[in-house]
Protein backbone atom coordinates (compact mmCIF):
# COMPACT_ATOMS: atom_id res chain seq x y z
CA UNK A 1 0.00 0.00 0.00
CA UNK A 2 1.31 3.49 -0.80
CA UNK A 3 1.22 6.09 1.90
CA UNK A 4 0.75 9.60 0.37
CA UNK A 5 3.97 11.60 0.72
CA UNK A 6 3.78 14.83 2.68
CA UNK A 7 3.94 17.70 0.21
CA UNK A 8 4.70 21.37 0.60
CA UNK A 9 2.81 23.95 -1.37
CA UNK A 10 4.94 25.95 -3.84
CA UNK A 11 6.43 29.08 -2.36
CA UNK A 12 5.56 32.54 -3.73
CA UNK A 13 8.49 34.86 -4.23
CA UNK A 14 7.86 38.45 -3.23
CA UNK A 15 7.95 39.65 -6.83
CA UNK A 16 8.43 38.20 -10.25
CA UNK A 17 11.97 38.40 -11.45
CA UNK A 18 11.71 40.32 -14.67
CA UNK A 19 15.14 39.77 -16.12
CA UNK A 20 15.63 39.31 -19.82
CA UNK A 21 12.18 40.23 -20.94
CA UNK A 22 11.76 41.74 -24.34
CA UNK A 23 9.24 44.45 -25.09
CA UNK A 24 8.20 45.65 -28.52
CA UNK A 25 7.50 49.22 -29.63
CA UNK A 26 5.39 49.65 -32.78
CA UNK A 27 5.32 53.10 -34.26
CA UNK A 28 5.80 54.48 -37.76
CA UNK A 29 8.01 57.38 -36.60
CA UNK A 30 11.55 56.12 -36.56
CA UNK A 31 12.87 58.90 -34.30
CA UNK A 32 10.15 58.28 -31.77
CA UNK A 33 10.86 54.56 -31.81
CA UNK A 34 14.56 55.03 -31.30
CA UNK A 35 13.93 57.46 -28.49
CA UNK A 36 11.71 55.00 -26.67
CA UNK A 37 14.08 52.08 -27.27
CA UNK A 38 16.83 54.06 -25.69
CA UNK A 39 14.71 55.39 -22.84
CA UNK A 40 13.11 52.13 -21.80
CA UNK A 41 16.08 49.79 -22.18
CA UNK A 42 17.56 48.60 -18.91
CA UNK A 43 19.88 45.83 -17.85
CA UNK A 44 16.94 43.49 -17.56
CA UNK A 45 14.63 44.73 -20.29
CA UNK A 46 15.49 44.34 -23.91
CA UNK A 47 13.59 46.75 -26.16
CA UNK A 48 12.86 46.08 -29.83
CA UNK A 49 10.79 48.01 -32.34
CA UNK A 50 8.75 47.66 -35.51
CA UNK A 51 7.53 50.34 -37.93
CA UNK A 52 4.16 48.73 -38.71
CA UNK A 53 1.70 46.05 -37.55
CA UNK A 54 2.71 43.44 -40.16
CA UNK A 55 6.36 43.58 -39.07
CA UNK A 56 5.30 43.47 -35.42
CA UNK A 57 3.17 40.37 -36.02
CA UNK A 58 6.02 38.62 -37.80
CA UNK A 59 8.33 39.39 -34.87
CA UNK A 60 5.68 38.27 -32.36
CA UNK A 61 5.38 34.94 -34.17
CA UNK A 62 9.07 34.35 -33.62
CA UNK A 63 9.22 35.51 -30.04
CA UNK A 64 7.03 36.18 -27.07
CA UNK A 65 6.85 39.84 -25.99
CA UNK A 66 5.32 40.34 -22.57
CA UNK A 67 4.53 43.99 -23.38
CA UNK A 68 3.85 45.60 -26.75
CA UNK A 69 3.52 49.38 -26.96
CA UNK A 70 1.77 50.43 -30.15
CA UNK A 71 0.46 53.45 -31.93
CA UNK A 72 -3.04 53.19 -33.34
CA UNK A 73 -2.37 54.77 -36.71
CA UNK A 74 0.09 52.59 -38.51
CA UNK A 75 1.08 52.38 -42.16
CA UNK A 76 -0.01 49.36 -44.19
CA UNK A 77 -3.20 47.32 -44.07
CA UNK A 78 -3.34 46.76 -40.34
CA UNK A 79 -4.07 49.38 -37.70
CA UNK A 80 -2.91 49.34 -34.10
CA UNK A 81 -6.30 47.92 -33.09
CA UNK A 82 -5.89 45.09 -35.66
CA UNK A 83 -2.50 44.39 -34.18
CA UNK A 84 -3.86 44.25 -30.62
CA UNK A 85 -6.75 42.00 -31.66
CA UNK A 86 -4.47 39.59 -33.50
CA UNK A 87 -1.84 39.53 -30.76
CA UNK A 88 -4.43 38.95 -28.03
CA UNK A 89 -5.97 36.14 -30.04
CA UNK A 90 -2.71 34.27 -30.34
CA UNK A 91 -0.97 35.25 -27.10
CA UNK A 92 -3.26 35.97 -24.16
CA UNK A 93 -0.27 36.74 -21.98
CA UNK A 94 0.91 39.72 -24.04
CA UNK A 95 0.05 43.11 -22.50
CA UNK A 96 -0.62 45.79 -25.13
CA UNK A 97 -0.27 49.46 -24.30
CA UNK A 98 -1.78 51.94 -26.75
CA UNK A 99 0.10 55.17 -27.44
CA UNK A 100 -1.93 57.65 -29.46
CA UNK A 101 -2.12 61.33 -30.19
CA UNK A 102 -5.67 61.55 -31.46
CA UNK A 103 -7.76 59.63 -29.00
CA UNK A 104 -11.47 59.79 -28.68
CA UNK A 105 -13.51 58.07 -26.02
CA UNK A 106 -14.85 55.62 -28.63
CA UNK A 107 -11.36 54.70 -29.77
CA UNK A 108 -10.20 54.20 -26.20
CA UNK A 109 -13.22 51.98 -25.43
CA UNK A 110 -12.63 50.03 -28.63
CA UNK A 111 -8.97 49.52 -27.77
CA UNK A 112 -9.81 48.27 -24.30
CA UNK A 113 -12.46 45.96 -25.77
CA UNK A 114 -9.84 44.47 -28.08
CA UNK A 115 -7.78 43.67 -25.04
CA UNK A 116 -5.48 46.69 -24.62
CA UNK A 117 -4.01 46.89 -21.15
CA UNK A 118 -3.44 50.64 -20.97
CA UNK A 119 -4.05 53.74 -23.00
CA UNK A 120 -1.54 56.62 -23.04
CA UNK A 121 -2.05 59.92 -24.79
CA UNK A 122 0.72 61.50 -26.77
CA UNK A 123 2.56 63.52 -25.91
CA UNK A 124 3.48 61.73 -22.73
CA UNK A 125 6.38 62.01 -20.38
CA UNK A 126 8.93 59.26 -19.85
CA UNK A 127 7.74 58.96 -16.31
CA UNK A 128 4.22 58.18 -17.56
CA UNK A 129 5.30 55.57 -20.08
CA UNK A 130 7.72 53.94 -17.63
CA UNK A 131 5.00 53.78 -14.99
CA UNK A 132 2.62 52.13 -17.42
CA UNK A 133 5.32 49.71 -18.55
CA UNK A 134 6.17 48.88 -14.95
CA UNK A 135 2.50 48.14 -14.15
CA UNK A 136 2.19 45.95 -17.22
CA UNK A 137 5.34 44.02 -16.41
CA UNK A 138 4.23 43.65 -12.81
CA UNK A 139 0.87 42.23 -13.93
CA UNK A 140 2.65 40.04 -16.38
CA UNK A 141 4.84 38.76 -13.56
CA UNK A 142 1.83 38.07 -11.38
CA UNK A 143 0.13 36.31 -14.27
CA UNK A 144 3.17 34.11 -14.85
CA UNK A 145 3.43 33.31 -11.18
CA UNK A 146 -0.22 32.36 -11.07
CA UNK A 147 0.25 30.17 -14.10
CA UNK A 148 3.26 28.55 -12.58
CA UNK A 149 1.46 28.06 -9.26
CA UNK A 150 -1.58 26.64 -11.02
CA UNK A 151 0.62 24.29 -13.05
CA UNK A 152 2.29 23.10 -9.84
CA UNK A 153 -1.08 22.63 -8.19
CA UNK A 154 -2.36 20.69 -11.18
CA UNK A 155 0.76 18.56 -11.07
CA UNK A 156 0.26 17.95 -7.36
CA UNK A 157 -3.43 17.16 -7.85
CA UNK A 158 -2.55 14.75 -10.65
CA UNK A 159 0.11 13.17 -8.45
CA UNK A 160 -2.24 12.92 -5.48
CA UNK A 161 -5.00 11.59 -7.70
CA UNK A 162 -2.58 8.97 -8.97
CA UNK A 163 -1.58 8.08 -5.43
CA UNK A 164 -5.24 7.96 -4.35
CA UNK A 165 -6.12 5.74 -7.29
CA UNK A 166 -3.18 3.49 -6.48
CA UNK A 167 -4.24 3.38 -2.85
CA UNK A 168 -7.79 2.51 -3.91
CA UNK A 169 -6.48 -0.20 -6.21
CA UNK A 170 -4.30 -1.55 -3.39
CA UNK A 171 -7.28 -1.63 -1.02
CA UNK A 172 -9.41 -3.36 -3.64
CA UNK A 173 -6.65 -5.87 -4.26
CA UNK A 174 -6.33 -6.41 -0.52
CA UNK A 175 -10.06 -7.06 -0.20
CA UNK A 176 -10.02 -9.42 -3.18
CA UNK A 177 -7.16 -11.38 -1.67
CA UNK A 178 -8.79 -11.42 1.74
CA UNK A 179 -12.10 -12.63 0.30
CA UNK A 180 -10.33 -15.31 -1.75
CA UNK A 181 -8.44 -16.49 1.34
CA UNK A 182 -11.67 -16.55 3.35
CA UNK A 183 -13.43 -18.62 0.67
CA UNK A 184 -10.54 -21.07 0.74
CA UNK A 185 -10.91 -21.29 4.52
CA UNK A 186 -14.67 -22.02 4.25
CA UNK A 187 -14.23 -24.68 1.64
CA UNK A 188 -11.38 -26.42 3.35
CA UNK A 189 -13.69 -26.72 6.35
CA UNK A 190 -16.52 -28.20 4.32
CA UNK A 191 -15.12 -29.82 1.17
CA UNK A 192 -18.54 -31.24 0.32
CA UNK A 193 -19.71 -27.72 -0.57
CA UNK A 194 -16.61 -26.94 -2.62
CA UNK A 195 -17.23 -24.13 -5.09
CA UNK A 196 -20.56 -23.21 -3.49
CA UNK A 197 -19.52 -19.68 -2.49
CA UNK A 198 -18.14 -18.92 -5.92
CA UNK A 199 -21.21 -20.30 -7.70
CA UNK A 200 -23.60 -18.42 -5.42
CA UNK A 201 -21.64 -15.23 -6.16
CA UNK A 202 -21.87 -15.83 -9.91
CA UNK A 203 -25.59 -16.60 -9.75
CA UNK A 204 -26.37 -13.66 -7.46
CA UNK A 205 -24.45 -11.13 -9.53
CA UNK A 206 -26.00 -12.50 -12.75
CA UNK A 207 -29.50 -12.27 -11.32
CA UNK A 208 -28.77 -8.71 -10.10
CA UNK A 209 -27.61 -7.78 -13.60
CA UNK A 210 -30.76 -9.38 -15.02
CA UNK A 211 -32.77 -7.18 -12.61
CA UNK A 212 -30.91 -4.17 -14.03
CA UNK A 213 -32.03 -5.16 -17.53
CA UNK A 214 -35.66 -5.59 -16.45
CA UNK A 215 -37.75 -2.69 -17.70
CA UNK A 216 -41.22 -3.28 -16.33
CA UNK A 217 -42.86 -5.05 -13.44
CA UNK A 218 -42.07 -4.99 -9.74
CA UNK A 219 -38.31 -4.59 -10.23
CA UNK A 220 -38.45 -2.35 -13.33
CA UNK A 221 -37.03 0.62 -11.44
CA UNK A 222 -34.44 -1.33 -9.44
CA UNK A 223 -30.88 -0.77 -10.58
CA UNK A 224 -27.61 -1.86 -9.00
CA UNK A 225 -24.57 0.30 -9.71
CA UNK A 226 -21.15 -1.25 -10.29
CA UNK A 227 -20.06 -0.68 -6.67
CA UNK A 228 -23.33 -2.26 -5.50
CA UNK A 229 -22.70 -5.27 -7.72
CA UNK A 230 -19.28 -5.57 -6.14
CA UNK A 231 -20.86 -5.38 -2.71
CA UNK A 232 -23.30 -8.15 -3.71
CA UNK A 233 -20.43 -10.27 -4.97
CA UNK A 234 -18.43 -9.96 -1.74
CA UNK A 235 -21.51 -10.66 0.38
CA UNK A 236 -22.21 -13.76 -1.71
CA UNK A 237 -18.64 -15.03 -1.57
CA UNK A 238 -18.60 -14.68 2.21
CA UNK A 239 -22.23 -15.52 3.06
CA UNK A 240 -21.32 -18.91 4.56
CA UNK A 241 -18.05 -17.88 6.14
CA UNK A 242 -19.57 -18.48 9.58
CA UNK A 243 -19.36 -22.22 8.86
CA UNK A 244 -15.82 -22.04 10.16
CA UNK A 245 -17.44 -21.69 13.60
CA UNK A 246 -19.58 -24.83 13.20
CA UNK A 247 -18.16 -28.23 14.25
CA UNK A 248 -16.95 -30.12 11.21
CA UNK A 249 -18.76 -33.36 12.06
CA UNK A 250 -22.07 -31.46 11.84
CA UNK A 251 -21.25 -29.92 8.47
CA UNK A 252 -20.36 -33.35 7.12
CA UNK A 253 -22.98 -35.38 8.99
CA UNK A 254 -24.31 -37.83 6.42
CA UNK A 255 -26.51 -40.04 8.67
CA UNK A 256 -28.48 -39.38 11.80
CA UNK A 257 -26.14 -41.30 14.09
CA UNK A 258 -22.44 -40.68 14.17
CA UNK A 259 -20.61 -43.66 12.55
CA UNK A 260 -18.99 -44.72 15.81
CA UNK A 261 -22.35 -44.58 17.63
CA UNK A 262 -24.05 -46.70 14.96
CA UNK A 263 -21.23 -49.20 15.22
CA UNK A 264 -21.73 -49.31 18.96
CA UNK A 265 -25.47 -49.99 18.64
CA UNK A 266 -24.94 -52.68 16.00
CA UNK A 267 -22.46 -54.33 18.32
CA UNK A 268 -25.03 -54.29 21.13
CA UNK A 269 -27.66 -55.79 18.82
CA UNK A 270 -25.20 -58.53 17.89
CA UNK A 271 -24.45 -59.12 21.56
CA UNK A 272 -28.19 -59.24 22.31
CA UNK A 273 -28.59 -61.81 19.54
CA UNK A 274 -25.80 -63.96 21.01
CA UNK A 275 -27.26 -63.59 24.48
CA UNK A 276 -30.66 -64.78 23.19
CA UNK A 277 -29.08 -67.74 21.41
CA UNK A 278 -27.20 -68.68 24.56
CA UNK A 279 -30.42 -68.49 26.54
CA UNK A 280 -32.13 -70.82 24.05
CA UNK A 281 -29.22 -73.27 24.35
CA UNK A 282 -29.41 -73.18 28.14
CA UNK A 283 -33.14 -73.80 28.09
CA UNK A 284 -32.62 -76.73 25.70
CA UNK A 285 -29.78 -78.10 27.83
CA UNK A 286 -31.86 -77.86 30.97
CA UNK A 287 -34.76 -79.69 29.31
CA UNK A 288 -32.57 -82.84 29.37
CA UNK A 289 -34.16 -85.90 27.68
CA UNK A 290 -36.86 -83.69 26.10
CA UNK A 291 -34.23 -81.95 24.03
CA UNK A 292 -35.59 -81.36 20.51
CA UNK A 293 -32.86 -80.20 18.07
CA UNK A 294 -35.41 -79.29 15.35
CA UNK A 295 -37.35 -77.08 17.77
CA UNK A 296 -34.11 -75.40 18.92
CA UNK A 297 -33.14 -74.63 15.32
CA UNK A 298 -36.56 -73.17 14.70
CA UNK A 299 -36.26 -70.92 17.75
CA UNK A 300 -32.70 -69.92 16.82
CA UNK A 301 -33.76 -69.02 13.26
CA UNK A 302 -36.66 -66.95 14.55
CA UNK A 303 -34.28 -65.20 16.90
CA UNK A 304 -31.84 -64.42 14.05
CA UNK A 305 -34.65 -63.17 11.83
CA UNK A 306 -35.76 -60.83 14.58
CA UNK A 307 -32.20 -59.56 15.08
CA UNK A 308 -31.74 -59.03 11.32
CA UNK A 309 -35.02 -57.13 11.18
CA UNK A 310 -33.93 -54.91 14.07
CA UNK A 311 -30.61 -54.16 12.36
CA UNK A 312 -32.40 -53.34 9.08
CA UNK A 313 -34.84 -51.09 10.94
CA UNK A 314 -31.99 -49.29 12.67
CA UNK A 315 -30.13 -48.77 9.39
CA UNK A 316 -33.30 -47.58 7.63
CA UNK A 317 -34.19 -45.09 10.35
CA UNK A 318 -30.60 -43.86 10.33
CA UNK A 319 -30.92 -42.65 6.73
CA UNK A 320 -31.50 -38.89 6.36
CA UNK A 321 -34.45 -39.18 3.97
CA UNK A 322 -37.99 -38.35 5.03
CA UNK A 323 -39.12 -40.68 7.83
CA UNK A 324 -42.60 -42.20 7.42
CA UNK A 325 -45.04 -42.42 10.33
CA UNK A 326 -44.88 -46.24 10.14
CA UNK A 327 -41.10 -46.12 10.48
CA UNK A 328 -41.46 -43.74 13.39
CA UNK A 329 -43.74 -46.28 15.06
CA UNK A 330 -41.22 -49.04 14.46
CA UNK A 331 -38.68 -47.07 16.44
CA UNK A 332 -40.64 -47.88 19.59
CA UNK A 333 -39.54 -51.51 19.25
CA UNK A 334 -35.92 -50.41 19.12
CA UNK A 335 -36.40 -48.07 22.04
CA UNK A 336 -37.61 -50.91 24.28
CA UNK A 337 -34.72 -53.25 23.58
CA UNK A 338 -32.37 -54.23 26.37
CA UNK A 339 -28.98 -55.88 26.61
CA UNK A 340 -26.84 -57.24 29.38
CA UNK A 341 -24.01 -54.96 30.39
CA UNK A 342 -20.63 -56.50 31.38
CA UNK A 343 -21.36 -55.39 34.95
CA UNK A 344 -24.32 -57.75 34.99
CA UNK A 345 -26.94 -55.02 34.80
CA UNK A 346 -29.68 -55.12 32.20
CA UNK A 347 -29.68 -51.77 30.40
CA UNK A 348 -31.66 -50.16 27.55
CA UNK A 349 -29.91 -50.87 24.27
CA UNK A 350 -30.67 -47.39 22.94
CA UNK A 351 -29.89 -44.25 24.90
CA UNK A 352 -32.07 -41.10 24.84
CA UNK A 353 -29.58 -39.30 22.56
CA UNK A 354 -29.76 -42.18 20.03
CA UNK A 355 -33.53 -41.98 19.90
CA UNK A 356 -33.45 -38.19 19.46
CA UNK A 357 -31.23 -38.68 16.41
CA UNK A 358 -33.30 -41.49 14.93
CA UNK A 359 -36.62 -39.69 15.42
CA UNK A 360 -35.54 -36.80 13.14
CA UNK A 361 -38.23 -36.73 10.45
CA UNK A 362 -36.10 -35.21 7.68
CA UNK A 363 -32.37 -34.79 7.20
CA UNK A 364 -29.58 -35.95 9.44
CA UNK A 365 -29.52 -33.28 12.14
CA UNK A 366 -31.33 -33.12 15.45
CA UNK A 367 -33.02 -29.82 16.33
CA UNK A 368 -30.07 -28.75 18.48
CA UNK A 369 -27.56 -29.76 15.81
CA UNK A 370 -29.62 -27.93 13.19
CA UNK A 371 -29.52 -24.81 15.36
CA UNK A 372 -25.78 -25.13 15.58
CA UNK A 373 -25.43 -25.35 11.80
CA UNK A 374 -27.85 -22.46 11.38
CA UNK A 375 -25.69 -20.38 13.68
CA UNK A 376 -23.27 -20.02 10.76
CA UNK A 377 -25.36 -17.04 9.64
CA UNK A 378 -24.80 -15.18 12.90
CA UNK A 379 -21.13 -16.17 12.85
CA UNK A 380 -20.87 -14.77 9.31
CA UNK A 381 -22.53 -11.52 10.37
CA UNK A 382 -20.32 -11.07 13.42
CA UNK A 383 -17.22 -11.81 11.39
CA UNK A 384 -18.17 -9.51 8.50
CA UNK A 385 -19.23 -6.70 10.85
CA UNK A 386 -15.71 -6.52 12.22
CA UNK A 387 -14.20 -5.82 8.82
CA UNK A 388 -13.72 -2.10 8.11
CA UNK A 389 -15.48 -2.16 4.74
CA UNK A 390 -15.12 0.99 2.68
CA UNK A 391 -18.30 3.08 2.28
CA UNK A 392 -19.27 1.42 -0.99
CA UNK A 393 -19.18 -2.01 0.66
CA UNK A 394 -20.79 -1.07 3.95
CA UNK A 395 -23.82 -3.33 3.38
CA UNK A 396 -21.87 -6.57 2.92
CA UNK A 397 -22.62 -7.80 6.50
CA UNK A 398 -26.35 -7.01 6.29
CA UNK A 399 -26.77 -8.64 2.88
CA UNK A 400 -25.05 -11.83 4.04
CA UNK A 401 -26.95 -11.79 7.36
CA UNK A 402 -30.31 -12.21 5.62
CA UNK A 403 -29.44 -14.98 3.15
CA UNK A 404 -31.50 -17.59 5.04
CA UNK A 405 -34.41 -15.28 5.87
CA UNK A 406 -37.65 -16.00 4.05
CA UNK A 407 -40.35 -13.63 2.87
CA UNK A 408 -43.02 -15.14 5.13
CA UNK A 409 -40.86 -14.93 8.23
CA UNK A 410 -40.07 -18.66 8.33
CA UNK A 411 -36.38 -18.15 7.75
CA UNK A 412 -33.58 -17.73 10.24
CA UNK A 413 -31.87 -16.49 12.34
CA UNK A 414 -34.19 -13.50 12.93
CA UNK A 415 -37.37 -14.62 11.20
CA UNK A 416 -37.76 -11.21 9.57
CA UNK A 417 -40.25 -10.73 6.74
CA UNK A 418 -40.17 -9.45 3.17
CA UNK A 419 -40.14 -5.72 3.96
CA UNK A 420 -37.12 -6.10 6.25
CA UNK A 421 -35.06 -8.33 3.96
CA UNK A 422 -32.68 -6.47 1.61
CA UNK A 423 -33.48 -7.20 -2.03
CA UNK A 424 -29.86 -8.30 -2.50
CA UNK A 425 -30.44 -11.01 0.13
CA UNK A 426 -33.65 -12.13 -1.60
CA UNK A 427 -31.63 -12.51 -4.80
CA UNK A 428 -28.92 -14.42 -2.94
CA UNK A 429 -31.50 -16.71 -1.32
CA UNK A 430 -32.66 -17.93 -4.74
CA UNK A 431 -29.07 -18.53 -5.86
CA UNK A 432 -28.16 -20.23 -2.59
CA UNK A 433 -31.12 -22.63 -2.62
CA UNK A 434 -30.67 -23.41 -6.30
CA UNK A 435 -26.98 -24.22 -5.92
CA UNK A 436 -27.60 -26.35 -2.83
CA UNK A 437 -30.17 -28.38 -4.78
CA UNK A 438 -28.16 -28.99 -7.94
CA UNK A 439 -24.79 -29.30 -6.21
CA UNK A 440 -23.11 -32.62 -6.77
CA UNK A 441 -23.92 -35.21 -4.14
CA UNK A 442 -23.38 -34.04 -0.57
CA UNK A 443 -23.03 -36.50 2.31
CA UNK A 444 -26.64 -35.87 3.35
CA UNK A 445 -28.38 -35.46 -0.01
CA UNK A 446 -28.27 -36.51 -3.60
CA UNK A 447 -27.86 -34.00 -6.42
CA UNK A 448 -31.05 -32.98 -8.18
CA UNK A 449 -31.44 -32.16 -11.85
CA UNK A 450 -31.94 -28.58 -13.01
CA UNK A 451 -35.64 -29.06 -13.87
CA UNK A 452 -36.39 -30.74 -10.55
CA UNK A 453 -34.54 -27.96 -8.70
CA UNK A 454 -36.42 -25.23 -10.56
CA UNK A 455 -39.69 -26.97 -9.61
CA UNK A 456 -38.67 -26.81 -5.96
CA UNK A 457 -37.82 -23.12 -6.31
CA UNK A 458 -41.28 -22.56 -7.78
CA UNK A 459 -42.83 -24.42 -4.86
CA UNK A 460 -40.89 -22.29 -2.40
CA UNK A 461 -42.04 -19.11 -4.14
CA UNK A 462 -45.64 -20.39 -4.01
CA UNK A 463 -45.28 -20.99 -0.27
CA UNK A 464 -44.07 -17.42 0.25
CA UNK A 465 -40.50 -18.39 1.02
CA UNK A 466 -38.76 -16.97 -2.06
CA UNK A 467 -39.54 -13.80 -4.04
CA UNK A 468 -41.83 -14.67 -6.97
CA UNK A 469 -40.85 -11.64 -9.09
CA UNK A 470 -37.15 -12.29 -8.69
CA UNK A 471 -37.60 -15.97 -9.42
CA UNK A 472 -39.43 -15.07 -12.65
CA UNK A 473 -36.43 -13.00 -13.71
CA UNK A 474 -34.13 -15.88 -12.70
CA UNK A 475 -36.12 -18.23 -14.93
CA UNK A 476 -36.71 -15.87 -17.86
CA UNK A 477 -33.07 -14.77 -18.06
CA UNK A 478 -32.00 -18.42 -17.56
CA UNK A 479 -29.59 -17.22 -14.90
CA UNK A 480 -29.26 -20.79 -13.59
CA UNK A 481 -27.28 -21.70 -16.72
CA UNK A 482 -24.41 -19.54 -15.48
CA UNK A 483 -23.29 -22.34 -13.19
CA UNK A 484 -25.10 -25.45 -14.37
CA UNK A 485 -23.47 -25.44 -17.79
CA UNK A 486 -20.08 -25.31 -16.00
CA UNK A 487 -20.88 -27.92 -13.37
CA UNK A 488 -22.00 -30.35 -16.04
CA UNK A 489 -18.61 -30.02 -17.65
CA UNK A 490 -16.86 -30.41 -14.30
CA UNK A 491 -15.44 -33.83 -13.45
FE1 LIG B 1 -25.85 -20.35 4.49
FE1 LIG C 1 -24.86 -21.05 1.18
Write a short abstract of this structure.
With 491 residues, the chain is α/β, with parallel strands linked by helices. The chain is 57% helix and 7% strand. It has 19 helices and 7 strands.
Strand tally is: 7
Low-confidence stretches: 1-18
- Structural class of the secondary structure composition? alpha/beta
What's the overall average pLDDT, rounded? 88
The CATH architecture designation of the largest domain is Orthogonal Bundle
Helix content: 55-70%
Q: Please state the CA-atom Rg, rounded to the nearest Å.
A: 46 Å
What hetero molecules are bound to the protein chains? fe (ii) ion
The CATH class name of the largest domain reads Mainly Alpha
The fraction of residues assigned to DSSP E strands is: 5-15%
DSSP summary: helix tally: 19
The span between the termini is 40 Å
Major β-sheet annotation: 5 strands, parallel
CATH topology of the largest domain: the name is: Hypothetical protein af1432
CATH H-level superfamily of the largest domain: Hypothetical protein af1432
Spatial strand sequence of the major β-sheet: 2-1-3-4-5
Oligomer: single chain
Along the chain, the helix and strand elements come as EHEHEHEHEHHHHHHHEEHHHHHHHH
The total number of structural domains is 3
Shape: rod-shaped
Amino acid sequence: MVRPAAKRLPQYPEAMHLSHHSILIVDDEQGFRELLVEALRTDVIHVESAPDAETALTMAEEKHYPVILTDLNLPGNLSGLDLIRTIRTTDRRAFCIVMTGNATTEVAIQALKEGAYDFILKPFTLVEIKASLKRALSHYGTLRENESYQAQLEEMVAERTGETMKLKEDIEHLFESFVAASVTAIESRDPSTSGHSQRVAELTVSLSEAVNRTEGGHYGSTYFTDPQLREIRYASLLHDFGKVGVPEHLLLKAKKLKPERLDHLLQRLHQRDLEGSLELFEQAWESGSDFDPARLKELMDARRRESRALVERLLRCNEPQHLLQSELNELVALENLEFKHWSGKTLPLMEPGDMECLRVRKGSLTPSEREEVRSHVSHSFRFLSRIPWTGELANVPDIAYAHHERLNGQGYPRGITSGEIPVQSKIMAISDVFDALVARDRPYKRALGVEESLDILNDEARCGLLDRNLLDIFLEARVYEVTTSKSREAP
